# Entry
Amino acid sequence: MKRRTGLLVTSAVVLGLVGGTTGGFLIQHARSATPLPPLRQALMTTTVPGTADPRDPQTDDGAKLDGDLRALLLQKPAGAKDMDLFPVREWFTIADLAEYYKKPSDALGRLNQLQFRRAARTGWTLTDGTDVEIDLVQFRSSESAASYTAMTQFPADTSLPPIAGTATGAVGHFSYLKDAAGRYAMYGLVRHGDVVEQVFVNRPQSMPSNDEVVAITKDQADLL
Amino acid sequence: MGQGAEVRAEAEAAAEDTAAAGAGAEVEAVAGEAASASNEAQARGEGEAEARIEAAAGETASASDEAQDGESEAESRVDTAAGETTSASNELRARGEGEAEARIEAAAGETTSASDEAQDGESEAESRVDAAAGETTSASDEDAAGTEAESAANSAGEVASASDEAESGAHSAGEAASGTEDASDTEAAAGGEAQAGGQDLLAGADSAGGEIPASVGAGAGAPGDASYGGVNPVPQRSARRQAWFVSGWLASALAVGAGAGFGILAVIGASNDSVIAGAPVAPATTPSPSVTSGVRPDGTHYGSVKDFLLPIPDGYQAGPDEGGLGNDSTISPDQADPTVALLFGTLPASDMTSAQGAIATGHMSDGAVRTYANSAGSLDVAVTVLRLDPAQSAESTSEFERVVKQSRAYRNGPQVPGHAEALCVLPVTHVGDPLDSMTCLATAGDTLAIVNAEGSVPLDTNAVTELFGRQLDTLKGGLGT
# Structure
């Protein structure tokens, strides 16, 4: 009797477990899935490249600098012809920029370290043979851009006039002598946010005037 | 009554204000080893319901009665005589009006299982369990309506147990098993509970509504019923009995399981509705589709091409923007020409026109670019993938390769390991420069993959071709390769 009762109870437990599992599974299986409740907040609209940027480049400096840098380059003056050393008003690469330096490999490493982002350039030749080049060099941060201005090692000359309307703008001479190409050269340098504007003006016959270089540098800076 | 004993379970249920209802059920099993009976008596309206099961010669007798609804009376009795097992479950529900009778009788070693449903109202329910010489007798009464229920279980067997959720009275008279009469039945209902010998005195005496059962158990009147009274249980087991036993066992096991399940649910309160109700409610938003990208067997790609771009490997970091395209971006179809101009700026104007025309033939539909700079800062790599119309891609890419290969702007570069079809070229203008560059391109299904690398001399072309090879593996084998 006890053996039989135990058998009964045991088998009943087993049947209950099996039947309950099967029944529960079947019931749940027959039910349609309960959809997860929607998120409490709708996700922010993701920014898709190519879609309209709500920021207005006219009023938003970040939007302007995130846009097409080539469009921010100063137009050549009337009568000037495009520089033939490179495609004007076009992008140029980190390696192109690094080759501006005496030790391009080191410059390339430094530019990568500073998280160089991109660069665009333009240039023209005036009728008197004066060459003008303007580079816009952009980094991932303003700090990197500031570091880059130091990296240029353009010799500063505080006696020269500043660039009006800029905090960091300056012009200067690499040398008061002709360079290796036989030209007198001056530079202009302005940092605006994460963009560095560098201007090169040179001509073979004489040193460009301060006012001339300042004017070009300021005109470009005004576009940034 | 001889060795017989009587077990009586009485359940009286009375609920609040609903119509008075009662159902009477009597169960008798005679000389059966296993008698299982489940009676459901539902009475609606006015009337009476009776269910009777008598078991004789049963070892075990169990009766479970459920009485639901109000102002009703329920009595259950199980008479067992010398049987091994008698199980009777009665459900008595009283609603409405009407009459119902259910009666089950089992005698002389036969197993009888019956389930009766009687519906009627304002009726009475009685069920009695009388056990004689049974080994085990259990009576459990449930009064689901929460009304009064009384049960009296008198057992002459070895074990007597009675459980009653409402009220239970268990009267064990083991010593009296050898007696002739059960004297401990104090909860006599409506008379007729006295049984002696094998004579059924229950007949017609239990119904408060005056209903007289038409027939009463087989008892001693049954021919060949030597075991009535529990003296000589018939050991014979027929297949029919076993079938009844199994079915009864199944029914009781399922009932226990279901009861346990609902009990657990009631305790933990796990309700689907409550889960939903507790969930935060927000305006319905269309879920963003989970974009899955892959490669079809024919080599064409689905999903965003950007998904196939090689993640930044160890030893690399995100590189400079590829001009105005960015360094981790998609390329829209209208950017096809500028992209070619940017990646193949070394090409002379005539070749550039041909190259752009070749891509235009392919009707570029999607593109993406990602750039990488090695940790030393000595190598910058940009990977661009353009997806073309599958119908035109072969013509488009082969023409594009031809333009690049024949251009005097380039010289041949190294092979890409594992991808013999890939073409690498070096710009002739960079010969002797302190920095060098290399461009590789290859077709993978409907995509054209291009890698542009710049770096210190000597250019680490192995790193470039290795990275490009991994990119081609992904474009050909799909994600995860």
Remarks:
- The mean pLDDT of chain A is 87.
